[in-house]
């Protein structure tokens, strides 16, 4: 498993937490940061998956 997949998954989780906290406290900026972190994590996870596929894992 490529390290990008692990890091990407962690960013998705971090983004979900930020988004939930932002919604709970009414902080639109924090909520938006959470959504951005989730999107970045998903992309990084996809990149890691492609690297794994190219290596034949």
From TrEMBL:
It comes from the Bacteria. SUPFAM superfamilies: Hypothetical protein YjbJ (SSF69047). It holds the Pfam family CsbD. Residues 4-55 form the CsbD-like domain. Belongs to the UPF0337 (CsbD) family. This is Uncharacterized protein YjbJ (UPF0337 family).
């Amino acid at each position: 498993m490529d390290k990008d997949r692990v890091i990407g998954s962690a960013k998705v989780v971090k983004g979900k937490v930020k988004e939930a906290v932002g919604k709970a406290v009414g902080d639109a900026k924090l909520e938006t940061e959470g959504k951005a972190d989730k999107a970045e994590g998903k992309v990084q996870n996809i990149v890691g998956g492609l690297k794994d596929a190219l290596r034949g894992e």
